[in-house]
Backbone:
């Protein structure tokens, strides 16, 4: 009876304590006045110019990659060769690949000639000399069709943690914090050390650096954080759909978007005359969005936004009681078990003493 009395007393004290702290379970950051200029569904705005950051992946294509003169032909290059006065059925015209051993095969009747390490003028003389073994006074023109250097520029390039992209044999270029136009200029200026008036095209192949977060409160058992890349078109409803809806412990009334002051969205607002000195908190009316199709609080998300979903107050309160009372119940359980063990042992001793007295009486 005494154990039950203390247990009931402990329950009452904890209930009073938890009731006094219920407000902490449902607290929500104070929201500032929200104007009509905040982008939302049906009233979206474009994000500012994309800024390259690690670990984005850039797609670079070489439009004009001409080596600085005098260029010397290398294995795996392609050269344009055109010759006159050739055999009727075996012309020498077109692009010829330089073999790995540095030679070019001109045809069955003309044989091969070594061009690796030669300039285009020297290559012309070498081809004419080779053709004179078969032809009479051939005239030859030689030009570079394709340099193997193109393969070192074209393709997908990961922006490294130090903010650079690798360009193969041409080294690396720092592009972090730049727009696409600025990165194009920086890469072309770097390639100008090796190429004649280089020209490239550049685009973003994978937008990996701009993300938003969904944070789910676990009703007293931690929080779950989800990270998703942003495309510039997501809303709150899109974000929740990416985690397959709200968990069972989530509150439908305590959802908000926390927007850092200096993210891309805030900068975009600054450019339109707005001014934000503090972080923004945008309350979300989930019932209106889901059940009535309202767009008023279905805000457009920007890089760095946090969609926070608070847990249900009653579930959080129940979990709090379970965590606080569980150790006390264990203590009372051990005490009760000890008391029962002592009583059982005492009854056993008395029973044995009674049996011994009966035997002695006989």
Residues:
């Amino acid at each position: 009876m005494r154990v039950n009395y203390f247990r009931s007393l402990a329950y009452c004290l904890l209930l009073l304590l938890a009731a006094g702290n219920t407000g902490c379970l449902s607290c929500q950051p104070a929201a500032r006045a929200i104007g009509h200029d905040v982008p939302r569904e049906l009233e979206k705005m474009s994000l500012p110019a994309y800024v390259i950051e690690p670990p984005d992946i850039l797609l670079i294509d070489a439009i004009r990659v001409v080596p600085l003169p005098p260029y010397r032909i290398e294995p795996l290059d392609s050269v344009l060769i055109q010759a006159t006065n050739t055999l009727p059925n075996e012309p020498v015209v077109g692009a010829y690949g330089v073999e790995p051993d540095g030679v070019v095969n001109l045809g069955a009747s003309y044989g091969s000639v070594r061009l690796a390490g030669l300039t285009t003028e020297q290559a012309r003389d070498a081809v004419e000399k080779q053709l004179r073994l078969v032809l009479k006074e051939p005239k030859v023109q030689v030009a570079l069709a394709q340099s193997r250097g193109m393969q070192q520029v074209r393709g997908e390039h990961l922006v490294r943690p130090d903010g650079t992209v690798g360009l193969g044999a041409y080294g690396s270029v720092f592009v972090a914090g730049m727009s696409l136009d600025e990165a194009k200029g920086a890469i072309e200026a770097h390639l100008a050390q090796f190429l004649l008036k280089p020209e490239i095209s550049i685009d973003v192949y994978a937008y990996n650096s701009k993300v938003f977060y969904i944070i789910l409160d676990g009703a007293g058992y931690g929080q779950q954080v989800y990270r998703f890349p942003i495309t510039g078109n997501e809303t709150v409803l899109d974000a929740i759909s990416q985690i397959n809806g709200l968990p069972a412990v989530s509150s439908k009334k305590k959802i908000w978007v926390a927007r850092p002051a200096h993210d891309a969205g805030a900068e975009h607002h600054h450019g339109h005359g707005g001014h934000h000195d503090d972080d923004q908190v945008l309350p979300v009316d989930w019932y209106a969005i889901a059940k009535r199709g309202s767009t008023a609080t279905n805000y457009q998300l920007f890089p760095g936004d946090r969609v926070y979903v608070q847990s249900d107050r009653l579930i959080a309160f129940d979990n709090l009681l379970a965590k606080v009372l569980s150790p006390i119940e264990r203590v009372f359980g051990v005490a009760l078990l000890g008391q029962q063990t002592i009583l059982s042992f005492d009854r056993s001793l008395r029973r044995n003493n009674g049996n011994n007295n009966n035997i002695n009486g006989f």
Remarks:
- The two ends are 41 Å apart (CA to CA).
- Residues 57-67+150-206 form a domain with the wza like fold fold (CATH 3.30.1950.10).
- The chain has a mean pLDDT of 83.
- The longest strand covers residues 250-259.
